[in-house]
User: Which sequence fits this backbone?
């Protein structure tokens, strides 16, 4: 044998809500120039693992304390003795929360959009635009969860 591998891939049952709204208006500033202005609002709910298996280790550097955060649904699982012993030895409490995703969503994700269209000649039109685009928290920890135990 010249190589081997072991996988720790775990089946997760994720869900999340994604909501958005958009408003745009066009304004013909001159006969050859049209401006498009808009704003978009997006709400990305953090991923929620339906079996209650995510965990998050939170460190508060200001107070030099930490906590091991689990959703309420995780109470159905027994934590390994080695983990609870290590946490207790370092004064890290296990905290259960009603927030099953262990993360808070941003509610004020407003992003502007701007575009223009300019007729330079009968056969040439110059167009351009600008926008800020947002995404959810897909790149934190075990994609797309914080951590699935």
Assistant:
């Amino acid at each position: 044998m010249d190589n081997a591998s072991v996988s720790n891939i775990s089946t997760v049952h994720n869900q999340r809500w994604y909501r958005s709204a958009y408003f745009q208006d066009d304004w013909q500033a001159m006969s050859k120039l049209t401006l498009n202005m808009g704003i978009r609002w997006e709400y990305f709910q953090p991923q929620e693992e339906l079996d209650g298996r995510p965990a998050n280790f939170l460190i508060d550097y200001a107070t030099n304390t930490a906590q091991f955060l689990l959703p309420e649904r995780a109470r159905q699982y027994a934590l390994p003795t080695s983990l609870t012993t290590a946490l207790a030895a370092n004064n890290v409490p296990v905290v259960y929360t009603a927030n099953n995703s262990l993360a808070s969503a941003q509610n004020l994700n407003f992003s502007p959009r701007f575009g223009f269209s300019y007729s330079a000649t009968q056969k040439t039109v110059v167009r351009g635009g600008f926008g800020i685009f947002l995404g959810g928290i897909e790149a934190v920890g075990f994609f797309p969860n914080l951590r699935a135990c």
In short: Strands lie at 14-15, 18-30, 33-44, 48-49, 56-60, 65-71, 94-97, 109-119, 125-131. The chain has one domain: 16-131. The chain has one helix and nine strands.
